[in-house]
Design goal:
This protein has helices at 12-137, 140-161, 165-181, 183-186, 195-208, 220-241, 302-314, 343-349, 364-373, 385-399, 442-447, and strands spanning 258-261, 263-265, 270-273, 276-280, 283-284, 292-294, 297-300, 319-326, 332-338, 341-342, 354-355, 406-411, 414-418, 437-439, 451-452. The chain has 456 residues and is α+β, with helices and mostly antiparallel strands. The chain has four domains: 15-134; 138-241, no CATH class; 250-382, OB fold (Dihydrolipoamide Acetyltransferase, E2P), CATH 2.40.50; 387-452. Strands 1, 2, 3, 4, 8, 9 and 10 form a seven-stranded mixed sheet that branches. A four-stranded mixed sheet has the order 14-12-13-15. Strands 5-11 form a two-stranded antiparallel ribbon. The longest helix is centred in the first third of the chain and has 126 residues, at 12-137. It is flat.
Length: 456
């Protein structure tokens, strides 16, 4: 029997292994060629893209340069047009102003030549005999001296007590005597009494200050006329400003910010209205802790009474206020009205509060009427709030550290400062360990971020 070994003849296993190896080698070669092709394509694409970007950059740069040149040209043209328009507008404005000034000058010249000068000549001709009579009588200079004295007394009285009836009488009589005594000097040809001293004063000034010689010198008539005009303007303004019916705050469009609503009285002259603290201008109420009376009459808390009376006036009624500024404590100053009734004037008329003293006291006449009728706080001795505050300030200053009497204390509502005349002043104790402190002035307290106490 013929037989052979397994290793003899066709070897299938070696064939299969060789075939697999060949196929794997062919596949690796194909992958390597594909990779090389991809890398080569990417390189070529990158080179093409780089060249395209370079070309695009050159084109964009050229476009930007062209756009820049066009923008510069357009901007220059626009600036030139704007400059020409501005110059044209300025020329037109200047032309309009010159035209307006010419019209005003022509109108003034027409009024002067057709009305004022003829009226002045007519008046001078009619007053010439009276001026000559006054000149011959020899009373011109004494009359002027008496007029100056009356005007000085009237102004001083108005400065201390306001322009009441006495002040008006003295001021008015002084102005009448001034007009009568000046007739020989204004209508006639007589030189003013002060003309020669004025000339000597100017000559002395020239000797002492020679560099002032080129400066034009006003004549004595011009100076006296200017002073007289200022005095007359002041007198007219005083009369108008003191009339409650002609107060600026009550005139439509001339007052300040308008505030309206229902109010609550905080003190005798302070209200809470529309979330704001408003103090009535032109008056001052006694402090809440202030008392009036004494000696022969029983004293009473006139400050609390003033608040009660103010609350009775405004309770449940619509109030209209015109703001005119603010006081040192930051409260809004305003003139308030119940319909057509001035609230501050009503309080002064009933004797609940004081009129602010001084030259521009609006309600001095009403205060004088209430004082003569012994109404309200005038039925006994009454201390002005400013004097009361000064007295309490001095007393607190003597016992306060470093002479700084204002107490600043911290509450749940924030940092509050209290003045010596406040009803809460005595009960407050300063504890520096919790942040309380003393202040020497209200301004210092406000700058440090503290605010005044408000009573509801």
């Amino acid at each position: 029997m013929l037989w052979r070994r397994r290793s003899e003849g066709f070897e299938w296993q070696r064939y299969v292994r060789t075939t697999i190896k060949l196929r794997r080698r062919d596949r690796r070669q194909r992958i390597a060629r594909a990779r090389q092709a991809v890398v080569g394509g990417l390189k070529e694409a990158g080179q093409v893209a780089a060249e395209g970007l370079k070309d695009a950059g050159r084109i964009a740069a050229a476009g930007l340069k062209d756009a820049g040149r066009a923008g510069v040209v357009a901007g220059s043209s626009g600036l030139a047009v704007a400059r020409r328009s501005s110059l044209a507008g300025l020329r037109a404005t200047a032309t309009g102003l010159v035209w307006f000034a010419d019209e005003v000058r022509l109108t003034a010249a027409f009024i002067l030549s057709t009305i004022l000068i003829p009226a002045g000549r007519w008046t001078r001709a009619r007053l010439a005999p009276l001026a000559a009579t006054v000149d011959r009588s020899g009373y011109a200079e004494p009359t002027l001296g008496l007029a100056a004295a009356l005007l000085a007394i009237g102004f001083a009285h108005a400065g201390a007590e306001g322009l009441d009836d006495k002040g008006l009488v003295m001021t008015g009589l002084g102005l009448v005597l001034l007009a009568f005594g000046s007739l020989p000097f204004t209508v006639g040809r007589k030189p003013w009494p002060g003309a020669r001293p004025w000339g000597r004063a100017l000559a002395w000034l020239d000797r002492r200050l020679p560099w002032l010689k080129p400066v034009p010198r006003p004549s004595f008539k011009a100076v006296a006329g200017t002073l007289a005009a200022v005095a007359l303007a002041w007198a007219g303004w005083s009369v108008l400003s003191r009339s409650k019916d002609l107060s600026l705050a009550s005139l439509p469009g001339l007052g300040g910010e308008s505030i309206s609503g229902r109010a609550v009285a905080l003190t005798g002259d302070t209200l809470r209205l529309g979330g704001r603290t408003i103090r009535l201008s032109g008056i001052e109420a006694p402090e809440l802790d202030q008392e009036c009376g004494g000696e022969r009459r029983r004293s009473w808390r006139c400050g609390a009474a003033a608040r009660t009376n103010l609350q009775a006036l405004v309770r449940g009624r619509m109030l209209r206020c015109a703001a005119s500024g603010s006081d040192r404590s930051g409260r809004t100053l305003a003139s308030c009205y119940l319909g057509d009734k001035d609230l501050a004037a009503e309080l002064v008329r009933r004797g609940h509060v004081f009129a602010e003293p001084g030259l521009f006291s609006t309600y001095a006449r009403l205060e004088l009427q209430a004082r003569n009728a012994k109404l309200g706080l005038w039925r006994a001795s009454a201390e002005r709030p400013s004097d009361y505050r000064a007295r309490r300030w001095d007393a607190a200053k003597r016992s306060a550290p470093d002479g700084c009497p204002i107490k600043g204390y911290i509450t749940a509502e924030g940092r509050i400062y209290v003045l010596p005349w406040s009803p809460d002043y005595a009960r407050i104790r300063i504890r520096e360990q919790r942040g309380d402190r003393w202040f020497c002035s209200e301004e210092e307290a406000r700058q440090a971020g503290w605010r005044p106490i408000e009573r509801s």
